[in-house]
Amino acid sequence: MKQTLVLIPGVGGDSDLWQYQINHLQELTDIKVIVVDREQLATG
C-alpha cells in the first residue's frame, strides 16, 4: 500500500518543480494535487 502525498501548487516553488516531483514520486506514492488560489488561502 502506497502512502499519499498531497501537493498544493502555488504555495511554494513553481510549476516545473511540482511537475518534477510528480514525475519522480508517482511510482512511490499516490499523489493528490489540491489547487488553492492565494485569495482562498488568505481568507481561510
What does this structure look like?
With 44 residues, this protein is α+β, with helices and mostly antiparallel strands. It has one domain. 39% of the residues lie in helices and 23% in strands. It contains 2 helices and 2 strands, in the order βαβα. The protein has helices at residues 15-25, 38-43; strands at 3-7, 29-33. A two-stranded parallel ribbon has the order 1-2. Helix 1 links the parallel strand 1 and strand 2 (29-33). The chain is flat. The mean pLDDT is 79.
Beta-strand content: 15-25%
Counting DSSP H or I runs of 4 or more residues, the number of helices is 2
What's the β-strand tally?
2
How far apart the termini lie comes to 33 Å
Provide the low-confidence segments as ranges. none
The radius of gyration over CA amounts to: 12 Å
- Average pLDDT figure: 79
Estimated structural class? alpha+beta
Tell me the domain tally: 1
Helical fraction equals 25-40%
Largest sheet features: 2 strands, parallel
Shape: flat
For the biggest β-sheet, the strand order reads 1-2
Order of helices and strands: EHEH
Protein name: Alpha/beta hydrolase
Organism: Legionella donaldsonii
InterPro entries: AB_hydrolase_fold (IPR029058)
Put the structure in a nutshell.
The protein is α+β, with helices and mostly antiparallel strands. Helices cover 39% and strands 23% of the residues.
List the helices and strands and how they pair.
Layout: E1 3-7, H1 15-25, E2 29-33, H2 38-43
Parallel strand pairs: 1-2
